[in-house]
Amino acid sequence: VNYVANRGAATQVVDEIRECGRKAIAIQADVAQEVNVMRLFKQAEDELGAVTALVNNAGITGKITRVEDMSSEAMKSVLELNVLATMICSREAVRRMSTKRGGDGGGIVNVSSISPRI
């Protein structure tokens, strides 16, 4: 379970997963930074074994405002996390799960945000 700042919520999810008889750990990493994604996957593999699934759920909307009032920095932040981070995490999962690369296969789920409604 990846988290940026809310360790308590991540720990609660880990506990619920373990109550179901599954293995889980909480790993702090800001996936908007590629170096953190690499560390996240390495730690997960080291502690849990082969990656078999990825759920991309990180996302932001930024300050709710009209598009014409958004700064380019705000737009960049949204795109870096919602698009680029999702693609980097997916790339790293595919590198590990792909049967063509020696993996056992797996699945990726991308969770959308409320952005289409804004």
Automatic annotation (TrEMBL):
What GO MF annotations does this protein's record show? oxidoreductase activity, acting on the CH-OH group of donors, NAD or NADP as acceptor
- What GO terms in the biological process aspect are recorded for it? fatty acid elongation
InterPro entries listed in its UniProt record: NAD(P)-bd_dom_sf (IPR036291), SDR_fam (IPR002347)
> Would you identify the family this protein belongs to, as annotated?
Belongs to the short-chain dehydrogenases/reductases (SDR) family.
Name used for this protein in its record:
Uncharacterized protein
Organism, as annotated: marine metagenome
